[in-house]
Amino acid sequence: MALGPPAPVLSEFELLVVLAVLSLDAGAYPLAIADAIQRRTGRKASRGAVLITLERLEDQGLLTSFYGDPTPVRGGRAKRFFRPKPVAMTAVRESLGRIETMTAGLEARLKLR
Amino acid sequence: MSGPLTPSRLVVWLLYRITSRDTADALVGDAAEALHARRDSGMALWWPRLWINGRLVADLAAGLWTLTARVAAGERHVLRDAWRSLRWTPGTSLFALAILAVGMTGAIVTFSVVDAVILRPFPFGSSQDLVRVSGNTANPIVAAMEFAAWRDHVPAFDGLAAYRASAEVLPTASSAILIPSVRTTASLFAVLRARPVLGHVFSADDEQLGRDPVIVISYALWQHLFNGDVAIIGRRVPFKAGPATVIGVMPSGFTFPVVPTQETVQAWTPYIVPANERPEVANGINRYLSVIGRLRPGATREQAGSQMVASLTEVRRAFTFGYDKDWRPMVVPLDEAWFGPVRQWMLLVLWAVVVVMAIACANVANLLLIRSTARVRELGVRAALGAGRGQLMAALLTESLLLSGTAATLGLTASVFGVRVARAALPAGILRSSTIAIDLRVLMAVLAAAFLTGVGFGMVPAWQASRTDAAALLKEAASTMTAGRGRWRTIFLVSEVAFVGVLLVATTLFVSSFVRVVRADLGFGRQNLVAIGPVSGLRGSASDVVRALRQTAGIQSAAVFSGGSAPLIMAAFGGGGAGSRIGRPDRPDLPFVDVAFLRISRDYFGTAAIPIVRGRAFDDVGAAETEIMLDDTAARALFPDRDAVGATLTIAKKPRTVTGITASVRLAGPGSTPEPQVYLPLTPTGGAPQFLVRTSFPAPRVVSALTTTVTQFLPPRTHVDVLLVDDAFRRLTADRRFNAGVLGIFGLVAVFIGAAGIYSVMASVVAQRQREFAVRLALGATATRLRRALLAEAGRHVLAGLAIGLPIAWWISRMFAALLFEVKPTDASPYVIVVGLVTVVGLAAALLPARRAGRVDLLATLKA
Question: What ipTM does the predicted assembly reach?
Answer without folding.
Answer: 0.79
